[in-house]
């Protein structure tokens, strides 16, 4: 049974895509079977592994459209690309924006991705979903499919403002479409030389306690270079600070979910 993580924050540019790829590649490095899903019309995750164009046909939009119809066998059709670094990717598509506009008119659209992932749950240890900077229907779909939401957050004053809206959305999803959904926060782009950042990190620790991953991802320009090179940081600069921190995060996440699995959390059915 895979562990499905949605990487969500409606605030833009807070390292959702960077975290999805770097964490995914770090988990794969540890021998985990990883599937990445680029649910963002911007396609940044796909571009970050060198995929610049969606397939001409049979891509993510057709896949989701299939899932919305609740076919019984979702395994027969999956727009899967296999990439170096041990990652499987369902690449994004700018046309996701048009699909998103239609979703509210479709009955039970929230379950579209959940229906599809049921068919492949045993093929992967981790499924990571990269979401767009919005709480729109595609993100609702991801939140309904996920076991857990990882919220990347920067340690600055304004970053905290959007968090309550996001947490309220998660609580609503938990009530209506996904009883087992949990969330955690990951402090990213942390500048240890900045006093305000240190104070904000302490506040996040005070407010969220165990929901904040102990691993903190610092500022590291090698991450920007890795995205340009189309490689995950653990491959592009394996000894960089960011690579080491994302590896540490992967270890922390694996330890957490192995514990949870032992207690049967992912066996919960909906
Ligand atoms: N720890 C870091 N240190 C320095 N730069 C970083 C770090 N993490 C991410 N970046 C850079 O910040 C920019 C935004 O990151 P990213 O695209 O991952 O954010 P995002 O939340 O996915 O954005 P969007 O909301 O548009 O989807 C990118 O150029 C990325 O390379
Ligand atoms: Mg992104």
- The run of helices and strands is EHEHHEEHHEHEHEHHHH
Mean pLDDT: 91
User: What composes the largest sheet?
Assistant: 7 strands, mixed
CATH topology: Rossmann fold
The count of domains is 1
The second-level CATH architecture is 3-Layer(aba) Sandwich
* Number of DSSP strand runs: 7
Q: Could you give the order of strands across the largest sheet?
A: 3-4-2-5-1-6-7
Structural class: alpha/beta
What does this structure look like?
This is ParA family protein. Pfam families: AAA_31 (PF13614). InterPro entries: AAA_dom, DNA_Partitioning_ATPase, P-loop_NTPase. Residues 4-181 form the AAA domain. It comes from Thermanaerothrix solaris. The protein is an alpha/beta fold and 270 residues long. The protein has a single domain, classed as P-loop containing nucleotide triphosphate hydrolases (Rossmann fold, 3-Layer(aba) Sandwich). It has helices at residues 16-29, 44-48, 60-68, 96-102, 112-118, 137-145, 163-176, 195-208, 222-229, 233-236, 241-262; strands at 3-7, 34-38, 81-83, 87-90, 126-130, 148-154, 182-188. A seven-stranded mixed beta sheet has the order 3-4-2-5-1-6-7, sandwiched between helices. Helix 3 (60-68) crosses helix 5 (112-118). 43% of the residues are buried. The structure holds adenosine-5'-triphosphate and magnesium ion. Adenosine-5'-triphosphate binds at residues 12-18, 40, 42, 44, 133, 188-189, 217, 219-221, 223-224, 227, 242.
């Amino acid at each position: 049974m895979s562990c499905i993580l949605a990487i969500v924050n409606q605030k833009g540019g807070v390292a959702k895509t960077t975290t999805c790829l770097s964490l995914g590649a770090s988990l794969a490095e540890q021998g985990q079977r990883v599937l990445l899903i680029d649910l963002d019309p911007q396609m940044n995750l796909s571009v970050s592994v060198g995929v610049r164009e969606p397939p001409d046909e049979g891509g993510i939009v057709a896949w989701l459209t299939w899932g919305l119809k609740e076919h019984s066998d979702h395994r027969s059709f999956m727009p899967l690309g296999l990439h170096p670094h041990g990652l499987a990717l369902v690449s994004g598509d700018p046309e996701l924006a048009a699909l998103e506009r239609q979703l509210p008119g479709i009955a039970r659209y929230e379950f579209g991705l959940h229906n599809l992932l049921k068919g492949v749950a045993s093929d992967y240890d981790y499924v990571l979903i990269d979401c767009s900077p919005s709480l729109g229907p595609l993100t609702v779909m991801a939140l309904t499919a996920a076991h857990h939401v990882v919220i990347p957050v920067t340690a600055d004053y304004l970053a905290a403002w959007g968090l309550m809206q996001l947490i309220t959305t998660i609580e609503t999803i938990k009530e209506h479409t996904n009883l087992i959904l949990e969330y955690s926060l990951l402090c990213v782009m942390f500048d240890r030389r900045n006093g305000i950042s240190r104070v904000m990190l302490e506040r996040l620790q005070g407010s969220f306690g165990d929901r904040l991953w102990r691993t903190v991802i610092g500022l590291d320009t090698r991450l920007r270079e890795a995205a340009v090179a189309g490689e995950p940081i653990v491959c592009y600069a394996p000894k960089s600070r960011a690579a080491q921190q994302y590896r540490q995060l992967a270890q922390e996440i694996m330890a957490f979910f192995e514990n949870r699995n032992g207690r049967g959390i992912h066996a919960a059915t909906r």
